[in-house]
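Example 3.2
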Amino acid sequence: MTLPAKRMSSRSTLISAPVIFLIVLMLVSRVGMAISNGQGIDTYGYEFFYGLGFIWAIGAWLQLDSMKYRVSNPYCPGLLLTAAWPILLTHHLYRTRGAKGFLIVLGFVAVVVMVQVLATVAYFLSAGAVTN
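Structure, written as tokens:
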């Protein structure tokens, strides 16, 4: 007996495990760095794990997406990810989704901006700059 194949909705294409990991990583690391900076604590650990996790998440997302849309991976993806991930990601999303790929890029930029705003608020709260 075989189970029926599960249909994937269009929403599940945007929110895969690497994308969720990337959002959580940005949120935890940026807010953690802001609070640590506000308290005068060194942030080298946050920066190291953020850089490592960020490249891994973008690479995993591109790999899963390439398999789904049956497009070839670029030559030497590790070098391209570390050097030109914004260009590579934008090109990949445009190639696989057309003009809708730019909406995903805009959504990604919006998430980055929102995380940075939260980190800035966390910094000011932890540094004691905001008083009641």
